[in-house]
Write a structure and sequence with these properties.
By secondary structure, this protein is of the alpha+beta class. It has two domains: 95 residues, lambda repressor-like DNA-binding domains (434 Repressor (Amino-terminal Domain), Orthogonal Bundle), CATH 1.10.260.40; 117 residues, Umud Fragment, subunit A (Ribbon), CATH 2.10.109.10. Helix content is 27%, strand content 22%. The protein has a nine-stranded mixed β-sheet with strand order 2-1-3-4-9-5-6-7-8, with no helix packed on it. A hairpin with a 2-residue loop joins strand 5 and strand 6. The longest helix is centred in the middle third of the chain and has 17 residues. It is elongated, with a radius of gyration of 25 Å.
């Protein structure tokens, strides 16, 4: 472990915006009974935390790549990433764990549920108000593994134009992306209105199509004016 361990702890603590006294209080909540004087000694280099204390320090300070931060030798998949990039790797790993899609059958440890809060927009209420994701009128909803991990927001649809696949009053979860392929179903804003439709994008022109053929297509005469908000999350 490098000799400037105390400097690194001090730097990460300050990035968190917490004092030595506050840091000591957090450590105590995690079962590490220390005072702010002990924190001061760690940071000055006059003493060192033990192994258990060190790991809890890293957890509180969100130090993900311990080897990279303290020894300058990151794991291969962490090399070249800054602090924000390392956090995103850890977040994605957490999503994979919580999804349950890649469980190791030999692993007997507990499987947690990641609770997220996603915005849900009502398409009927948003009619004529402009771009959906810029509107403040949404309901924050706590969701777990029942919602695809790729979902960024939800929409409440109305009417029966997307029957039999989608029903009036249903929440459909959407992965935010700015480009869809021909045949994809997603959310679009055009001329001040928001649509949940299937994209038909061929040489003959761009249209937004309902699943129920009794409903006419929305003709997109100016494709550059159409904003794609996302695709149904898988």
């Amino acid at each position: 472990m490098v000799s400037n361990l105390g400097d690194i702890i001090c730097s990460f603590r300050k990035k968190k915006g917490i004092s030595q006294r506050q840091f000591a209080a957090l450590l105590n909540k995690h079962g590490v009974k220390v005072t702010n004087q002990a924190v001061s000694k760690w940071e000055s280099g006059s003493s060192l935390p033990n192994a258990v204390q060190f790991l809890i320090i890293c957890d509180i300070l969100d130090i993900i790549d311990i080897s990279g931060v303290f020894n300058g030798r990151s794991y291969d998949f962490m090399q070249g990433l800054n602090e924000e990039g390392r956090k995103r790797v850890a977040e994605y790993a957490g999503m994979l764990l919580d999804s349950g899609l890649f469980d190791d059958p030999s692993f007997s440890g507990p499987r947690g549920t990641k609770i997220r809060t996603l915005p849900v927009y009502d398409l009927e209420s948003a009619a004529g108000k402009g771009r959906l994701l810029d509107l403040p009128d949404y309901v924050p909803m706590k969701v777990g593994n029942e919602v695809p991990i790729s979902a960024n927001f939800g929409v409440v649809i109305h009417g029966d134009s997307m029957e039999p696949d989608y029903h009036s009053g249903q929440i459909v979860w959407i992965h935010q992306q700015s480009k869809l392929e021909h045949g994809d179903i997603g959310v679009f804003t055009y001329e001040g209105n928001t649509y949940f439709k299937r994209l038909r994008d061929r040489v003959g022109g761009t249209r937004l199509q309902s699943i129920d053929s009794n409903y006419p297509d929305v003709i997109i005469s100016d494709p550059e004016a159409m904003v794609t908000l996302g695709k149904v999350a898988e």
